[in-house]
Specification:
about 30% strand, Rossmann fold, 21 strands, about 450 residues, alpha/beta, eight-stranded mixed beta sheet, OB fold (Dihydrolipoamide Acetyltransferase, E2P), about 25% helix
Length: about 450
């Protein structure tokens, strides 16, 4: 019979610490004795008092009680729920300083995990405004008997509980200012305790809210939802099962977003993957195409292409563009988007880019340029294939600096590329999320 692990006792009282850096999750890092201590609410350069939350073998965790000496870049959080809600972790840091911290995290990751440095650091891509930018989000819903109400919002930091929010300043105002009304609506439904989640998806103008329902709606429930969406600018969809069960409450709508610089309109379904930040997405595409240095004779491969977010702008400026994606539904939407925009120089294929790639036509092509935009797990599995394709330039868009650094180490150390440049993009202001882009050139 196994022994239960004895929980380490947490010291009581307040302790003082100097913050030397910031971790990738947005917590301040202090060296207390011989151990690193990660502190919620602390910024580099500060002296704080804190209380312990947890002690682990490799590090400790704590919460700031008092800021004794504040950093110059500390600001007053806009949101009254900051520190409780898990949706943001950096509202206490000036946005211009947030992006510099993220740039440092990227450079440190490249060196630590990939043993590489870029020849040049790209200027960061920032928002026109760091507020109201989120057009995609997943919100928790909980009918809390002891509070006598339904809560709608992000989860509490480090908890499965739904935070009690009156407003969210990072969600698009269409939803960020509607949380109390949504709470009251769900509270009025017969299945208020069987609706655990709302997924938000917006195009340039319209907002869809997908309600995850564990029991069928009553006739009265459907009437209340219809009345709500006639008063408020939202459209309800229902999800009674898996992702393929998503359907509109009544008449569905078609969602589109524009890429004006390329004269493109891209359609998508409410539960498709799209970027959360329209402003940064447009700037990111422009940066990617600039780094690719496209010519009218170029043949370009776009891996993890989704609905064609990069593929179609690339096709505007190249001889041909091939997009590859693991989700067959997204590939279907990409083809439809190419047709909608009358782009005849594109092809799209479905392939598992983490498995054994079959002998499809695109595999044996040679490409002048390659773009890849993988999920958090990175693109390690396809790197040997990329090396055989002979591309002179590879642009890598990343949502996690650790896997970008790992893959950069392989591209440089194994496959004969140099890391020409790298930089960050502030896709998620006020969070510790680091979105980045890197250019690799064949040596």
């Amino acid at each position: 019979m196994g022994h239960r692990r004895r929980r380490t006792r947490v010291p009581e009282g307040e302790f003082e610490a100097e913050i030397v850096s910031m971790g990738q999750d947005g917590r301040g890092v202090a060296q207390v004795g011989e151990k690193k201590t990660f502190l919620h609410g602390a910024l580099p350069g500060e002296t704080v008092s804190f209380r312990y939350l947890n002690r682990r073998r490799g590090h400790d965790e704590g919460q700031v009680v008092t800021v004794i000496k504040a950093a110059e870049d500390r600001v007053e959080p806009r949101c009254a729920h900051f520190g409780i809600c898990g949706g943001c972790s950096l509202q206490h840091l000036d946005p211009s300083a947030q992006i510099q911290v993220k740039q440092s995290i990227l450079m440190d990751s490249l060196l630590q995990f990939g043993e590489v440095r870029p020849d040049s650091v790209l200027p960061p891509i920032t928002n026109d405004s760091p507020w109201g930018y989120r057009r995609k989000a997943r919100l928790g819903v909980k009918d809390v008997a002891r509070k006598g109400r339904v809560l709608v919002g992000f989860r509490e930091r480090g908890s499965s509980f739904v935070a009690e929010l009156q407003q969210c300043h990072v969600l698009h105002p269409r939803v960020g200012g509607l949380l109390p009304q949504l709470s009251a609506l769900i509270e009025s439904l017969s299945i208020s305790g069987r609706l655990p989640q709302i997924e938000m998806a917006m195009d340039d103008e319209r907002c869809v809210l997908i309600l995850r329902i564990l029991d069928p709606l009553s006739v009265a429930d459907e009437r209340r939802l219809n009345e709500f969406q006639t008063v408020h600018p939202v459209f309800f969809y229902l999800q009674p099962g898996g992702p393929d069960t998503v359907r509109p409450l009544d008449d569905g709508i078609e969602l589109y977003y524009q890429l004006p610089a390329y004269g493109l309109t891209l359609g998508f379904l409410p539960n498709d993957f799209t970027q959360v930040n329209t402003d940064i997405n447009r700037k990111m595409i422009a940066r990617a195409l600039d780094l690719l240095d496209l010519k009218s004779t170029d043949k370009v491969l776009d891996l993890f292409c989704g609905i064609g977010n990069f593929t179609l702008p690339i096709a505007r400026q190249s001889q041909s563009a091939i997009g590859v994606e693991g989700d067959a539904g997204l590939v279907e939407r990409a083809r439809a988007n190419a047709e909608r925009n009358r782009l005849a120089n594109t092809e799209f294929y479905t392939a598992d880019l983490y498995g054994e790639i079959k002998a499809e036509p695109w595999v044996n092509h040679e490409f002048d340029k390659i773009l890849l935009d993988p999920p958090r797990s990175g693109a390690q599995e396809v790197l040997p294939l990329l090396a055989k394709m002979g591309a002179q330039r590879i642009v890598y868009v990343s949502c996690y600096p650790g896997t970008l650094a790992r893959d950069a180490g392989e591209l440089v150390g194994k496959y004969g590329y140099r890391l020409a440049s790298a930089g960050v993009m502030d896709m998620f202001p006020h969070t510790a999320h680091v979105e980045s882009i890197a250019l690799f050139e064949k040596v």
